[in-house]
What does this fold into?
Amino acid sequence: MAMDQTDLKLLRIFLTIVEVGGFAAAQSELNLSLSTISSYVTTLETRLGFTLCKRGRSGFSLTREGQIVFEEAHRLFKSVSQYETKMRSLRDKLNGTLTIGLTDNTITDPGARKIEKTIARFVKQAPDVTLNVVTYPPNDLLREIVTGAVQVGICAFPKTVLGLSYVSLYPEMHRFYCSSDHPLFNQSDDGIDIDEVRRYRIVGRKFWLGRDLKDFAIAKPHAMVSDMEAEARLILSGAFLGYLPEHYAKQFVEAGRMRPIRPDQFYVEATFQASFDDSKQLDPVAELFLDILIDDFGAKRD
It folds into this structure.
């Protein structure tokens, strides 16, 4: 059924009736008589082709179809309201400051390149907004989002925090590496198994909550880091083995300073997400950035 202004008016009346709990209660809310309200609902039912509610001595209740119409109409008007807010903000010119939080060493990741496109589109649409871009380790970035210091964070988050919303953007592949100074560098992958790896020191990440160690069944790592550069330093020393993002390690592999160990077995795929506090109404600046980001990555927002 193609919708027009009449349908929208009737749906708004129906929403009000449901929200206040019946026809009688809706009279003062709508400033309409009981017979007029009943007539409007009958007209809506006729246009839709099914019954929306039961009314009479037994009280007011929704049919199964009526419940569906109520839920969909609620979503529709919420979207319309958000659209009107955004258009009003664009008309009045967006200004202020937007703080975006990122994690370290993602600039070499092909999957992350759309972030630059998002920034360019955002600046074009909101030229008066000041961008504040900060970089934190994942756990610290989560804290900054929770406290409101960062409006939108982009990271492979180590855990889900209650009250935050997440939108999946792209995957990042991590492999297990040794340096050219490590005893395993010249050893064939065929001769390397978990027991062989466990003979050597392994780096752990504070924010991965043991995910980088579970394959090797060791009680604790031999070194701990909070960012990729620190992990790369330890691996390049020849004294440690550890995981690195494939795109970040590529420069060292091509220079002959590192190699992945058993890439068929030792790997972790991390999902980068955009996170924000959706429990509070995002300001129009953050909403615009988030909409562009989601569009650029072809993602979906719940």
Observations:
- The radius of gyration is 28 Å.
- The CA atoms of residues 160 and 166 lie 8 Å apart.
